[in-house]
Records
---
Amino acid sequence: MYKVTPNPPETDPASPYESPKSKKFHEAAERALDHYLAPPVTAIPYETSSMFLVDPKTDTESLLVNASESLGSASVMLGDFASLLEGTHRKTLLGIAQVVMLGELAVNQALDKVVPAE
């Protein structure tokens, strides 16, 4: 009987580290990949500035109203500025405006759920 599919190619069972030169090459390749693909190890964590602080006594409803108005203003400013641009810069600004608008919608939804203080 004749076999229809060919035999798999024969592979060399030798280790990739058979010679010191191949091991050095592999280590150099790993260093290069780590350099270009690994996140930086010395990244400094982001810390918020304490220059501007919100009064801790401010009630939740007031904070949400202010956030909603700020996000609404940012959305309008981005839309106005995007109308002055063309191409990818315009699309980028419109994308940012959409993210801001989604934040505004979320804040407004949270504001609808706040029980007004009496």
Note: The two ends are 92 Å apart (CA to CA).
---
Amino acid sequence: MKTRQFWYPLPERLIAQHPAERRGTEKMMVLHRDTGMLEHRHIADIVDYITPNDLLVVNDTKVFPARLIGKWEDSDGAIEVLMVSAAPESETDASGDMAMPSMDVSNETLVWNCIIGSGRKCREGQVAVFGPAEQLKVTLVKPLSGIGMWKVRFDCSRPLMDLLDEFGRTPVPPYVKREGTREEELEDRERYQTIYAKHVGSVAAPTAGLHFTPEIFAALDAKGVRRVSVTLHVGPGTFRPVKADDIEDHRMDFEAFSVPPETAEAINACKARGGRVFCCGSTTVRTLETVASRERAEGDPLVVAGSGASNIFIYPPYTFKVCDCMLTNFHLPQSTLLMMVSALAGRERMLCAYAMAVRSNYMFFSYGDCMLIV
């Protein structure tokens, strides 16, 4: 298929620059795959569509303040660093490819794959400083494949995550325009994070989950709907544009994931009883479709607990092995995310739904409204 087949016109006014005034009040378009029928509801109405026989799966990764603004130690020139993924201490291979991302993100994790933004030519051994009294230093270790990508080492006066919490910035997507005010940063710290975020490691939020509130979860609990989680640390590749003419030529970035035993057991039990697996967001879908695609012996369960790194790219035609229904936001034209939802609901049907969303003034992208595909 051609990338241009996933283009649609979107007025700039519909790109949400701020979250809804109150979490859990966003609009929700419901797309019925069997008939193509569209409904206009709100996120709290999701309770009406999930039964006790079904299972809700969410991604409990946690966004951290991964964007740093500082200066070069030797020139005072400006530098921006976006921390992408934790890296092993060992050197990358001779090709300069980035090492597989790790789930191990802690104060002791001081070697990272990062995107460096600077007006000067970067060289190995250069040092940049960040924060008041230059409490954090970054040394460029090795260039990696990819524009501006480097392996770096952090040198901290205090625990790394404490310093990031103090003067790091929330890495909201580039289409969310920010002037860098304290008020904007405080808003992003709270709202660019799910209420169930647990495991630190993402530089982008699993945005479908931003809509859930304790009240919605309480209503699902009261109905008898079980909820389990996976973890996938989201990288900037989720926003990387598809530049290839043929979508098959695009390559996804690797992202670290983990599937707990209780989640695997719950999914296999749901499938066995004929229930539906509701995936919250594309990251949950990619995690589960990755583990379901791994080779296994005959008779093994569909989903097996474990961890690893995934670069699965889901586009039409694709046969979903785990995901039956999906809660998702509205995605960029010609994006891998739009291609994924098109694989689930059909490209023409999805583009018709997006045209309706534009006419109905739904808000798009990370801070926007959502769609439930059933």
Note: The chain is about 20% helix and 25% strand.
---
Amino acid sequence: MNTTRRTLLQIGATGLFGSQAARFLDAAPSPPAPLPGREERRRARAKSVIFLHQYGGPSHLDTFDMKPDTPPEFRGIYRPIHTSAPGIDICEMLPKMAAHMDKVTLIRTVRHEMRNHNSAGYYSLTGFAPPTDDQRLRDSRELAPAYGSVVDRFASSTNGTPTFVSYPHVIADGSITPGQHASFLGQTYDPFFIQQDPNSDDFRLPELSLPAGITAERLQNRREVMNLIDRSTEILDISARARGIDAHYSRALTMLTSPTFRRAFDLSSEPLAMRERYGRTTYGQGCLLARRLVEVGVKFVTVYFAQSIGGQSKVSGGWDTHGFNNVPMYPILHDYLLPITDQTLPTLIEDLHVRGLLDDTLVVWAGEFGRGPRINNIAGRDHWPQCYTVLMAGGGVKAGYVHGVSDRVGAYPSRDPVRPEDLSATMFHLLGIDPHAEVRDSLNRPLPLSMGSVIDGILR
């Protein structure tokens, strides 16, 4: 262990224990200051949120809001099928999902004005409109925080697990999409981020393993902590596979010594049949990991479907299906995007339901926008933020329910429009957080957690 790393840790730079390390070692920590809005917390209907971010923008017209009576240039090639929820039809490519539509709410009228992936992606991850609709929008600590960071600030986990975990990608379109970390809330509330494939055979978190001979009891001794700092390269060398542990020393100790939390990452302990049901893909195993994390008390899990917006590939990437180099969208939908969705999403919902976890776990399936109603001249659909669908399940929302009606071709809301900030207000409300509680931004200006309104119509 070199002197530089030890010195950095002692003066509070970011190492494993980060800005809290020196203060912890010098004195017992003071009780946390009361958080604004705590006194106005509502009764939480959800203990956890699993946020499944569908980067690239799924076509609502080819999934959950089909328009079979429109001309072919609008309706596309797929036909709707009936589902377990009377009156709710979805795409024929989603037969497994159809069997579980009686457990979900579809919000078919989400809308905003951001047509670029980075600006719309930021909006979808924070509930705050960006300052401009610009593909060059850059990640910045001055922008709004991720949903999970707000949850960590206002309703952090109390059992020693991280409040906010995200994986397995840093999403980007040219540049990193803003909204994936705590931003002006500060690094303390950044996610515990894992950039490792949960489908890989060697999936593990070495940073959570204690060196041989170091026990939990010894970690409570200041001298032993300094010995650990001097001796343990594996723990102190934070890799790209696990970040966010650096803000709270006490949480770090709990995670290092908690067999329950460490076991959540041992996907090999799952029955093989269950792993196969989720799908042996990065996304499928990521959703299985999400279930295991909420089981041990993690409050907000973000699973990114893909690192990129996608395009021509039928084996990777996201939902950007407006056609590239004359490659049409339907082979990509047919061979990749819809099959993986139909395998993993209903499996997660059913698994949570069978285990009695769905009632207090809110599942949110959402992209940054939808797709245009008219198929373009290269057999794709273009960016369309004016109307798209978000799916929610469990956690206090109605089951087998549709909120809002889009117009005849799915271009605009016809009734009950919803904005991303309304989604954020609803998520916070369901977690027992007052969405109008104030926080201070980077310029010390008061700002509500959400600019939107709770969507009362979808609540149970």
Note: The chain is about 30% helix and 15% strand.
